[in-house]
C-alpha cells in the first residue's frame, strides 16, 4: 500500500499556519480542527511542524506564554516528509526510527497531504484483515 492510497481513503485536507503566528493562535486552529499537529507553511513552502508535544515541552514545561511566543520559536523545522509513491512499510519505519507521529506528503515540493501514525496503523490493520479473509477463503475451499 502507498501513501497515495492512504490519502485517497482519508482525504487530503492539510491544515497549516504561518510561522509568525503566536503559539496560542496555532493551538486554537488545532483545537478547532481536532488535530494533534499543524504544518507551518510560509509562501507555499513547508517550514516546520508544530505538535501538542512541542507545546507541552517547549512552552508549558519552560514556563513560557503561548500568547507571546511565535510558532517559529518552538516549531520543529527538521521535518521528515514522504512522497505519494512511498510505501507503508517505509513510512512506519521512518516514524518508528525518528519517533515522529506525522509525515507531511510532498510532490514537487508542494504539500499535498499529511499522514499520521494512526493512519498507518489503520491501513496495516485493513491489510491484515484482507489477508486473513483471503487465507480463510483458501482454507475453506
UniProtKB/TrEMBL annotation:
<dbReference type="InterPro" id="IPR051257">
    <property type="entry name" value="Diverse_CBS-Domain"/>
</dbReference>
<dbReference type="InterPro" id="IPR000644">
    <property type="entry name" value="CBS_dom"/>
</dbReference>
<keyword id="KW-0129">CBS domain</keyword>
<feature type="domain" description="CBS">
    <location>
        <begin position="10"/>
        <end position="66"/>
    </location>
</feature>
<keyword id="KW-0808">Transferase</keyword>
<dbReference type="InterPro" id="IPR044725">
    <property type="entry name" value="CBSX3_CBS_dom"/>
</dbReference>
<dbReference type="GO" id="GO:0016301">
    <property type="term" value="F:kinase activity"/>
</dbReference>
<protein>
    <submittedName>
        <fullName>Histidine kinase</fullName>
    </submittedName>
</protein>
<keyword id="KW-0418">Kinase</keyword>
<dbReference type="Pfam" id="PF00571">
    <property type="entry name" value="CBS"/>
</dbReference>
<dbReference type="InterPro" id="IPR046342">
    <property type="entry name" value="CBS_dom_sf"/>
</dbReference>
<feature type="domain" description="CBS">
    <location>
        <begin position="75"/>
        <end position="131"/>
    </location>
</feature>
